[in-house]
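Long-time lurker. I teach an intro course on protein structure, and each term I like to show students one example going from raw sequence to a predicted 3D structure in token notation. This year I'd like something fresh instead of my usual example. Would anyone be willing to generate the tokens for the chain below so I can use it in lecture? Attribution to the forum is fine with me.
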Amino acid sequence: MTFDFTAAGARALRVLSLLLAAPAGWAQVAALSTPDRVVYEATFYASFAPRTALDMINQTPGFVLNAPEEDERRGFAGAVGNVLIDGERLSAKSQSLADVLERVPATEVVRIEILRGAEVAGDASNAAVLANVVRTRTSGSGTWEAGTEMSNREVVAPYGRFGWSGRSESVDYSIGANLYTHDHESPGVRTLTDGDDVPVATRRNGLPHEERTYALNGQAAFPVGEGKLTLTGQASSREYDEHYTALTTTPAGAQIDREDAPHEETTRTGEIGATWQRPIGAWSFELVGLATRKKNFSDSLYTHFDADDARDEHFDQRLDRDSGETIVRGTFMRPLESGQVEWGAETAFNTLDGTLSLTRDSGAGPVQVPVPNANLRVEEKRAEAFLSHAWRLDGNWSLDSRVAAETSRLSFTGDTEQSVSLSFLKPRVQLTRKFGKHQLQARVFRDVGQLDFNDFVSSAQLVDDIIAGGNPDLRPQTQWNAEIEADLRFPNDTALRVRGYQHFLRDVADIVPVGPPGAQFDAPGNIGDGEILGLELSARASLAPLIRGGTLSVTGTWSDSDVRDPLTGENRAISDYFENTLEMELRQDLNAARFAWGLSFFASSVESDYRTSEIDRFRELRRLDAFVETTALAGYKIKLMAYNITSDTEYRQRVFFTPDRRGSPGLRETMHFRPGTWWLLTLSSSF
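-- Reply from a regular --
Happy to contribute to a lecture. Here you go:
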């Protein structure tokens, strides 16, 4: 006897759909939708009183914004995220998708389309679902937001955002500016115990810190010849200051030592990009050029005082890093009768110049401290070619296949003189089956991790007494991924996405000892093969009639990572990897009262760093936030956010071993940092 999984699955989904009542609003959404394109008209978002396209994206059922940081993905395509604007991507990496979407007023958005299956087949981002923000053909409008943050330091920290966009049939432009300031105190208590868990000391620390971020960005698109030219640009500056202090006492209260460690850091970023598009016969041609430059410099001081409060040691670290990325990418795409084909190539030139000066003064004057791989220039020349094909097999099945090949050469000069050549083949196959409005996808692909050039260059973490080593022998982590994902769409604005995955890792990026025997330190490195088995869920449902105007959103990841420890030979989790995360939001919109409120919760599991003679565990805040907002003042939205209303603490524990992790645990340092509750009050409007 055989069992028809396809027919059974279809019947089960039909039964589940019938169990959910379909309100009138669902018919409006469904009317313009297709199995591969779920459409939400602007009127769908009216109850949320959105001010920007980002507000609308955040309330779109079954969609989670994915905006990778610029250093997380290789090249251009992998860093562009999962949102399109009028069917096109922005030629930028340093501008976040959130910044771009905040420049688009909600009044300018006609609809948001969720693209799935064959609609995203061949997409270089590997995203299973894309959101396309469709704007009016003619517009000229802006949006602004201003406010202030108040933390436990009771210092007013201003916040502001401005965006303006204009559009006609042939010219499109936008400009935006952002201001963010943060002034906070994170006091903490550290308990030190010996190998028998007997308290030996208490360390009380203060950590006042300030952050100031400014950004100006813009975009312009206009016809050139037979095509269209789009220009983008951004300039940003981030300044960060902190002043760590610590007083260590015996259980009886006598001073053991005292530490004072101010730190200042500045980062400047500039980026320009250009995209030229034009048809060439039956083909669409796109050429992208992008240049990003970043300069980061910091000054860290550390002074140690003994039991009599006399200064006995002082360190001064000055760090300077200049990095650049230049990308040129060309693609040709042609629609076919039952799909499309796309091919192209990308070349990139990446650089990093890192210099470090570290001195130590024990009373006889400053002496230079040698740190291996602290002064280094890194260059990477990389090229990639790819070919993708999307094929609609019939009305229910589609097949997406893609193959890419990349080659690169890394060169190091300075403290290390060497070069290495790398090459990777990256195939991908995805099969999609439709069940009415629902879809099931299965895919297998090979992925290559990003190399963070900062991992090649050393620095010192003075407060933690750690050399953050640089390792020019670090290779990109590669992995074969097998995934199956269900995207389910129900009436009553309910959506559910579930993804199960198994990742088979090679050259797992972790922590390894580097340097000569007797003078080794920990640095990023590769430790062999590993696996990650996981489940990811994203759900959004209306709570009516249980809670009038209520919605609940849940996003979570539950996974298990496994790698063999090269030092102990035992299996363990991968370093610096949060295996489990959970985000929830409960929101109620009372439109008649022009009022809304909500709660959001975030939690993650503990992640651990396995150094040679230490295990360093860290858990972020289990944060419960709340907000209230009103549009009672005509044309304006007033919003009050309260962060960490339960005053949860960050947790960190360091366990030291002698002589290394194969030995017995010795000193244990357990820390709890208390950032308290902080508030943000904003006023926003469109014009």
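Some talking points for your students: The two ends are 67 Å apart (CA to CA). Residues 5-19 form the longest helix (15 residues).
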